[in-house]
């Protein structure tokens, strides 16, 4: 070992994660690798010798969050000897910029390079390391090495990357082309999770609906039907689905498989066919609505959520109104809505970012207000019902209250006489807010 450099075994580490479930899962892997090397996880940066910021590049805001987080770490770096690393797809894309803007960063690691993490942490104590190579093939990551946040619900990656090139999206440039994981490996991991007491799995991928087993050529619908047979797993969810790849067979596989939750995240992005065309989404408003109708015909109680972008280049008032009317027509259980921000390398970033910031803000508020109103109405309609909830632990805000999710992936906060963490419980809903339901166990 080099002089002065600390071994992993004597280190405490802190990980800060920004971004999607995929990033959260990457952080669980990073934590697993560091723990296997003997390092100890800490919940405070001040108390750590190694700090890793794992962040995504999908929206401009995530990038801003990275720099403000690094800015807060600068004084710490002056005060004490601490190794600072940046991971995730931001790292992949902005390696030179990060090193220039925040020269105190010791290493940068891309999502395909985590297996070398221990060596990188070691070398970076002597000189800066940038490791952002990527591979064309799916890299298996040992499940047992993942230090999962939850003992109940686990993320399971089934594919990585994306071939779709939506004109606003950076992902094909940060995560590369689609790479599929072998079905047998997915099934094995899920069986071992079940054997270890996990009750729920969330399949992850940028476009899970295009899943194709590299060995047999079997598709996503086939995978869902196989997963339904894994003993011990009670709930299966998946994210993210692309509307153009969501077909009747997948919907029928969902309906037939009682373990597959009646819940689907199906990002529409805009309710306007002309904007969807400029976004290169590959479907029209009408085609999207037909798929929603097909899903609801097969599963009347399905809970639907979506992603919306407002202020895409050239989005007219009429086109924006189409988004509002689409939201009113579908009535999603939940939405995630964003102001458009131009991302490097994307086709849309070559267009003028023509909608002023204030207008984007106004449109975002309109979207969120409309959705909030509909969510309150929907949640109120659930008051008085009893529903199955998977208890994930104590609520972060109030330790006397438990928090879980129902089949529709809504947050349910509830009181219980005994600790029911990690169990399915029946909860009677007594009240609600726009973003959660409140009740008690029956
Ligand atoms: N600007 C704003 N939102 C974006 N998203 C992706 N790229 C951008 C961008 N350039 C949103 C989409 C996507 C979600 C993960 O992030 O809604 O579904
Ligand atoms: Fe991005 Fe489109 Fe791929 Fe989703 S489908 S990751 S929005 S390019």
- Label the overall shape: globular
Structural class by SSE content: alpha/beta
- N-C termini distance: 59 Å
Poorly predicted spans:
none
Instruction: Figure out the total of helices.
Output: 12
**What portion of the residues fall into strands of 2 or more residues?**
15-25%
CATH fold field value of the largest domain: pyruvate-formate lyase- activating enzyme
Q: Mind telling me the CATH class of the largest domain?
A: Alpha Beta
- CATH architecture call of the largest domain: Alpha-Beta Horseshoe
Give the key terms.
single chain; 442 residues; alpha/beta; Rossmann fold; pyruvate-formate lyase- activating enzyme; OB fold (Dihydrolipoamide Acetyltransferase, E2P); 3 domains; six-stranded parallel β-sheet; five-stranded mixed barrel; 12 helices; binds 5'-deoxyadenosine; binds iron/sulfur cluster
Summarize the entry for a quick read.
The chain has 442 residues and is an alpha/beta fold.
What does this structure look like?
The strands form 5 sheets. Strands 2-1-3-4-5-6 form a 6-stranded parallel β-sheet, sandwiched between helices. The model has no long low-confidence stretch (mean pLDDT 93). It is an alpha/beta fold and 442 residues long. α2 (60-79) links the parallel β3 (50-54) and β4. It contains 12 helices and 19 strands. α7 packs parallel to α8 (248-256), α8 runs parallel beside α10 (285-298) and α11 runs parallel beside α12. The structure holds 5'-deoxyadenosine (5AD) and iron/sulfur cluster. 5'-deoxyadenosine (5AD) binds at residues 58-59, 168-169, 267, 269, 307, 309, 338, 340-341, 343.
